[in-house]
Amino acid sequence: MTQTYDAIVVGGGHNGLVAGAYMARSGARTLVLESRHKTGGSATTESPWPDAPELKVTRLSYVMSLFPPTIMKDLQLERHGYKVWPMGPYYQAYPEGGSLTIYPDDDAKNYEQIAQFSKKDAEMMPKWDAWIEGLADVLGPLLLTVPPNIGSRAPTDLAETLRLAWRHRGLDVRTIADVVRLFTMSIADLLDDWFESWQVKAVLAVNGVIGTWAGPCEPGTAYVMAHHSIGDIGDGVVGSWGFPEGGMGGVSDAIERSARSFGCEIRTGQRVIKTLVSNGRARGVVLESGEEIFAPVIINTLHPKTAFLDQLEERELPDDFVTDIKRWKTRSGVVKINLALSELPNFTANPGSNLQEHHTGSVEMAPSIEYMERAFQDAREGRGAARPFSDGVIPSTWDKTLAPEGTHIMSMFTQWVPESWSDEPHEAELEAYADRMIECYDEVAPNFKASILHRDVVGPYEMEQEYGLIGGNIFHGELSLEQLFNMRPAPGYADYRTPIQGLYNGSSATHAGGGVCGIPGWQASKAALADKKAAEGLVGKLRQATSRKG
Question: 111 and 173: one domain?
Fold first, then answer.
């Protein structure tokens, strides 16, 4: 029996679920197909230890940000269980002694903390925060903007480019210069312009290298910092990072419940291996089982190399588009280490394994910019970092659903290992790398290593093979200058459409992708619905014209 839908969404990660929810909300008979046994993709909560099923970890992505209130409201996510706890401060303890805590919204505490290293930097910090907020006023709304086809002479494309320029007509010379600096400078050089103490610069540099195949001295990492520093955005609103209740899988579960409430059908364990195309138009998909399912609209939310190079024939696509996708950079060097702890870290600089404020936010292992740069250079030279960098969090300090009373879950997003480690498992090397990472924390919190009950080490190979993250890149593509805005994922196709009519791109490799934000899935569904409405309007006019002639 032939199965036909109004729309098929390929991929049940958070973007796919958002796209499916919006399509179903519009009245379209919609099917979401996910290859894994569960939805969520990288935004997933799992129990990796069979002998301890009560312990749950956010296996890959680990904190919420950049999620527009528009999507939360449209999909009624709070009604479906979406809840986020605000993160506490950034915390770094130093092997040589002492620590630095940076608070998201407390200038007085920040002054006291920073002044122990530099009074000049303590006075500069509020100015830095104001500068970042000013940039967020520009970059935040830009994340919700569909990139125009810059360079095209088509009237509609020219109109969109002019419309974008008009919306930003109020920007002054200084603001434009600041944005240019972000796109071209390293986070190390940018921070040198603002601060003098290496302690402050290191804490602020963390957001410039997360998930990036680049050390803090690489040009372009200043933008990565800004991308991560905007916080929750939508309609010009700037907020902060947070831990979703139930882990990152709690976010995906809420979106899935929303999609189902609108009538969206979701199937897991259904791997799509081919997109069916006829006369330049998408008409359906083929599953690994050989089953064919048909729909005039396909929204693919998988990595672009999978969506366009594996699921389509090259002859079905323009040569320059194929070249752009083949050149798409998707390196990483990330290793995710998830731990179950019998007690909280007892830091020498801030003693006590009882719950304290510094346990509730980012527990970093990034003591200096030189430390981070050395870790990256180790990977570039072909070995796992001798002393890895880590953006660590302990979400169970807020979210009590992840672990029983008296135990905790720690998530360590660590870097770097060689980019080539996505080609093979490298299990022994990964375990040794994890040992070194744990030793680094043990130097500043001597109870740390002994408190570990279980550990789960996820390297680039598993990220690619199990979760479809080519190269282990969490953004589906590096956030480098040549892969942003109208270049994401290819010039001329940044509007969530593709060279195939009826095939839309809702992956994190599109504009605003990078982080659990849902924007790509939302924008892809908007593009599909806009094209459907335009086509229906054209058909209506043709019928009227035919009727008048008759």
Answer: yes
